[in-house]
Automatic annotation (TrEMBL):
Gene3D superfamilies attached to this UniProt entry: Transmembrane di-heme cytochromes, Chain C
One example of a Gene Ontology biological process annotation: respiratory electron transport chain
GO molecular function: electron transfer activity
Entry superkingdom: Bacteria
Transmembrane regions: 6-27, 39-61, 118-138
Organism: Magnetovibrio blakemorei
UniProt keyword list: Cell membrane, Membrane, Transmembrane, Transmembrane helix
Pfam families: Ni_hydr_CYTB
Cellular component terms (Gene Ontology): plasma membrane
Name assigned to this protein: Cytochrome b561 bacterial/Ni-hydrogenase domain-containing protein
Membrane topology category: Multi-pass membrane protein
SUPFAM superfamilies: Transmembrane di-heme cytochromes (SSF81342)
Length: 193
């Protein structure tokens, strides 16, 4: 699979940013009524807002570019043809894994695209909910009403992102170790294609 340079740059920014964001969340002190958050919480808020900007760029790029990695590849759920492609790709993976290997990765993988789309949705929901908290929460005061609900959604999505990061990274390393070169290809913004 060949990705354009801008897609690779967005992927690197998201991979690094979300990984740092999730790691920071493990050590930060959340603000509570009468207590402010710590410096790691401030980093988490600001990095989250910056990641929202990168995610918006990714969405716009996915909707406007042509080629193999457009929006339809990320969200196959609205097309019978793409859903059938996804079923075929899942079968291809099952067959290859049954033989102790991964399928070749030269062509666009419907399974990988659908999984990336799910990660994009979870990441965007986390960034939007976190940015709403940044903008509307009053530090040191309890969140109530709709903002409390947004905070709950944000906290529920965190573990989903951890799972996504783990599976996505493991799949990338597995393909790289299988000789597909997909990880090195995605992480090189200096390569032309």
């Amino acid at each position: 699979m060949h990705y354009d340079r801008f897609t690779r740059l967005l992927h690197i920014l998201l991979a690094l940013g979300i990984t740092v964001q999730m790691a920071v969340s493990l050590g930060m002190t959340h603000p509570k009524p009468g207590r402010a958050g710590d410096i790691l919480y401030d980093v988490h808020e600001l990095l989250g807002a910056a990641l929202l900007g990168v995610l918006v760029l990714h969405w716009l790029w996915s909707m406007t570019r042509s080629g193999q990695v457009g929006i339809g590849r990320l969200f196959p759920w609205f097309s019978i043809t793409r859903i059938n492609d996804l079923k075929t790709d899942i079968g291809r993976y099952r067959k290859a894994l049954g033989h102790g290997r991964l399928p070749e990765s030269d062509e666009s993988s419907a399974l990988a695209g659908a999984f990336e789309g799910l990660g994009l949705i979870v990441g965007t929901a986390l960034a939007v909910s976190g940015t709403l908290i940044l903008v509307y929460a009053v530090e040191g005061q309890r969140m109530t009403g709709w903002l409390h609900d947004i905070k709950e959604i944000h906290e529920i999505l965190g573990p989903l992102m951890w799972g996504y990061l783990g599976v996505h990274a493991a799949a990338g390393f597995a393909h790289q170790l299988s000789g597909h070169g997909s990880l090195s290809a995605m992480m090189s913004i200096w390569r032309r294609t």
